[in-house]
Structure formats: structure tokens, C-alpha cells
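Usage example:
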Amino acid sequence: MIQLNNLSYTFEKGGGVSNIEMSMQDDEFAFLIGPTGSGKTTLLRLIYMDLLPQVGNVIIGEYDSDGIKQKQIAFMRRKVGMVFQDYHLLEDRNLFENIALPLHVIGCSKDEIVDRVKDSLDEVGLGGKESHYPGELSGGEQQRACVARAMIKEPDVILADEPTGNLDPVTSFELIKFFEEINREGTAILMASHNYNLIKGRGHRIIEIRNGSIRKS
Amino acid sequence: MDKLAFLLSEGVKNLWRHKLTSFSSIFSIFLTLIISGTLIIVSQNTSKVIEYLRDKYKIEVFFKNEITFEKVEEVVSNINKINGVRSTTVISKDDAEKIFKSQFGEDIMKIIGYNPLPISCVVNIVKDDTKTINIASIINKLKSFQEIDEINYQGRIISRIEGYYQLFVRLMTSILIIVFFISIFTISNTIRLTIYAKEKLIESLQLIGATRSFVKAPFIIEGILIGFIGSALSSLLLIGLLEFSYDLIYTYLSFKIEYDIKLLILTLCSLSIIISFIGSSRATARFLK
Ligand SMILES: Nc1ncnc2c1ncn2[C@@H]1O[C@H](COP(=O)(O)OP(=O)(O)O)[C@@H](O)[C@H]1O
Ligand SMILES: [Mg+2]
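Running the assembly step on the lines above writes:
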């Protein structure tokens, strides 16, 4: 469960989000929609506590941003999968090493890591490409790798920031369908996008943000 | 266990990726440890060296020809009372004759018909290194005896050697302090470069929930590896040099260098760990947010 209470954050040079009230259930699929510069990325960063609120608080699972310690933030992030527009894959590591990274952080054994990375790559359709470097994959493949890296730690929620931003329409739809599949298995998904056409008519909750405020939820 | 292996391999990779800066850190640690090691060995041998040198302090005193042996014995008992004199050995005219014979293989009596060699006395100086002795004042007191004709001594050169020895120790200590800080600085700088080069990895790790210590660990390991390599190299070189010079110095100066390999290695290792730990902690504390 995610809960945002009277949340505000303003950057020094202006911009940010203000007075956000919002909550999300454990199995929900929600789109965060709004034009560029409306505050989607800021809101997501507040949720995974890359930014800490100046007013109000964020509650995610058992963690409350109010007076949270660095170490708690680390533990909270193990329950949250992040997917980015620019994939955030490490260029100097191959696909296997990229996907394995979250498992090293948790402290899994070598055998477990090999098994789980293989399963998760099969799941996103990248089986057999373990030794490829990010530069040797297409945009769609890199984005699926990014999803695999988010999924491998079996998170409670996935936060996706414009994940389709660099993908063509067909690949974008495939990604959304893939997210729906993940959601059916019980993972909450919050996906930010400025592309209304991509998400309309799929029956998911739509949270609209404009100028840093939520208009309709 | 696998987590540790992962962090360790990350540390090694860091080290390898920045070979040149790693090398400069290893070199500065190496230098620090060589100097420390030399100082350790020198200080372990200080009292032995001073004792060795003072053992060679010999003042030879020649008495005037007309002085009788009884008078000489009286003077010598006064010499023994001089501060800094350890012992004396009187060499009678007969002894001198024997020494001459053994050294030159000639009987002086046969050559010139009488014994021209004067009575002499060897004055030995205290060996104890705890007090510095003033050779000049001993010489002056000896000169005040009317019965003494000539005084031979090598005191000046030996006290000069002692002076150089102390200067050397002081110089090395100052250099040690400087290179100690330089090596902390170069290690910290090496780690800082690695941290900059790893910005994306650090960011990713933080996003997937790595704790601060997990993110820091490879960098600290990198630093400690640098220290370890530096201490291994310097220990090898020092022990090699010691083994080599031990025989040489013993053959030429019959001086046995005293050293304790275990203590030496232990000290160098702990010193390198201290340096590399301070260096890499400094870097991670300052450049890892
Ligand atoms: N790091 C930042 N520093 C300063 N201002 C920022 C920063 N990130 C975002 N902003 C400002 O906050 C507002 C919201 O930005 P953002 O959350 O990135 O919007 P979106 O993701 O919806 O495009 C914008 O006006 C932007 O200029
Ligand atoms: Mg954005």
C-alpha cells in the first residue's frame, strides 16, 4: 500500500509538487498521466524516497518517510522495482550481470542468482542473451531488461517513469500488456506517462497531474 | 559468502581498471613502508651500533721515555678515575717489544741494540649508549698529565659517525611523516577517481536498495588491496636486502644486524592497513553521498 499525505516538494529554482493526497492498493494498476513538466518524475522520486517531502509524508508498506533512516530507505527499495525511460542499465556489464545486481545486494547465493536471472530473462523474452551488453540490444529489449531487473527481487510495487518514452507504439503496447500480466500476479503498478492515447480504454485507474497538483484520481 | 565474493571481485576490478593511479598509490605505500622498515631495523640496532663504534674508541697514550713504570702505574690509576673511561691496559717496554716483533717480524734489540719503545697505555671508553660522552674533555684531561708525551685517538671520526647516524634517523623520521600523509592522500585520490568512474553503478546500487556499507565496501577493499600489495612488495625488498647485506656487513665489519622478520612484516602490514583504511574511508566519506 502506498499513501501520500498532504505531500509537497518544491525545488530551489521552482517547480515540484504540492498538496498531493493519494493512495494505492496492493494489487492496483494506475497510470500517472500529465504533460511534460507536470511533476510525474518528482512524485515518483518522492515515493521511492530519492527526494524526501518538505511537507507531508509518504507511507509505502511498513515504511514512513517521516524521520526515516538511510538504511530503512535501502530496505524499502528492495520492495520497490523501478523502471526508467532511459533504462539505467550499466553499459560495461552484460545482461546477466545487470539483472543479477539486485540479487547481489540482497545477498543471494551464486546458484540462486544463476537460476533466478535465467527465469526472469526467459519471462521477458530475453533468454539466451545473457552475454549481450546493453549496447548490443534494441531499445525494446533494453526496456524489457530494465523490467526484468525490477522484477527479479519480486517487489510489491513497480514504479515506471515513462517506460515507453523511447519505444515505438507496438513495443509500447507490448510493454503495457506485460505490466498487466505482472499486475495480475499481484504486483501493484504505478506508471507515469504523458501519452494518453497509449493508456486510454484499458480500464485502469488514471491519476491526472498538472502543475504539480493532482486533478483527478 | 557469495556476497563477500561479489564485493571482493568488485574491489579487484576497480583496482585493475585504474592501473596507473593504483600503481602510484601502491608505490607511495611501498615507499612509506620501506622507510618505516628501515627505521625499525635501524632503531633495533641503534644501541648495538653505538656499542660497536665505542668499542673501537681507543685512546693510545705514550709516556715520556724517562718515566718509570711505577710512576706510570700511578698516572694510570688517575686516568681510570676520569669520567667516561671504562678501562685501561698498560703496555710495558717489554710488551711493546713483543708487539713490534709480532707485527714486523724483526727483533728491534738486534737492529739498534736497545729498546726505544716507550711505555704506553690503551684507554677504553664506556660503551653504554645512554650517555653521550665528551671525548674532547677526556683528551684535555689526559693532556694535563706532565708524564704523557703523545696521545693518539680516532675519537673525532667516530663521534662524527655517531652524529651522522642520529641525523639519518631524524631525517628518515621526518620523511616518514611526510610520505605517510602523501600515501593517505594518493590512496584517497585513487579511490575518488574510481568513485567518479562508478557514478552510474553507485546510483543503480542505491536505487535497488543497497545499503551504504554495501556501496562503500568495494572501494574500501580496493584501498586495502593497494595497501596489501604495497606491504608485500616492501617486505620482500627489505627482507631481500637484509639477507644480502647481513653476510656482507658481517664479513667486512664483523657486525651482526639484528632483526625480527615476523615483527617487521607485522608492523608493515598493520601500517599499510591503517594507511589504506584511512585513505579509502576518507574518499568514501567525502565523495559517496
Ligand atoms: N532536479 C530538479 N531541479 C530543479 N527543478 C526540477 C528538478 N526536477 C524537476 N524540476 C522541475 O519540477 C517540475 C516537475 O518536473 P518533473 O517532475 O520532472 O516533471 P515530469 O516528469 O512530469 O515531466 C518542472 O518544472 C521541473 O523544471
Ligand atoms: Mg519525467
